[in-house]
Specification:
- The chain is an alpha/beta fold.
- 54% of the residues lie in helices and 14% in strands.
- It has 7 helices and 5 strands.
- A 5-stranded parallel sheet has the order 3-2-1-4-5.
- The longest helix is centred in the middle third of the chain and has 14 residues, at 59-72.
- The protein is globular, with a radius of gyration of 14 Å.
């Protein structure tokens, strides 16, 4: 079974029903719910998603949404090693992307799913959009 790290933008595509990206994000989460793929997210994505949700929802609503999300995804820890690797890496201009990348590396993830392909150009892991991944498994 493929183990994928889902970037925060994919989570927001699903939860905010952002078009034209919603259908592909929903399909990924449906495949995970059917246990055909394993979706992982960094703990950072939960914090970022909560922040975005809090802009339009009450705290209780945000927590309920995140509780449901947690049933479908595996939450990967950020630790001292991942932070250190991210701080000392020169391939990523964006610190958050470096944290996502090294979380994936340290957890032996098969691929990263994101809409920000340009931010992961030097990745040693496959990086693709939700659409690209879905086409690759057909």
């Amino acid at each position: 079974m493929k183990n994928l790290l889902i970037d925060t933008n994919i989570i927001i595509d699903l939860l905010a029903k952002r078009e034209p990206f919603y259908d592909e994000a929903a399909m990924l989460f449906t495949l995970a719910d059917r246990q055909q793929i394993c979706l992982s997210v960094s703990a950072l994505s939960f914090a970022n998603t909560n922040y975005i949700l809090s802009q339009s929802k009450k705290p209780e609503e945000s927590k309920l949404i995140l509780r449901k999300l947690r049933l479908i995804v595996q939450v990967l820890s950020l630790d001292e090693k991942i932070v250190g690797l991210s701080l000392n890496d020169n391939d990523f201009r964006d610190f958050e992307d470096a944290l996502q990348y090294f979380t994936a590396i340290e957890n032996e993830i098969d691929a990263i799913i994101t809409r920000n392909l340009k931010d992961f150009q030097k990745s040693k892991l496959p990086v693709m959009t939700a659409s690209q991944f879905l086409k690759s498994i057909k």
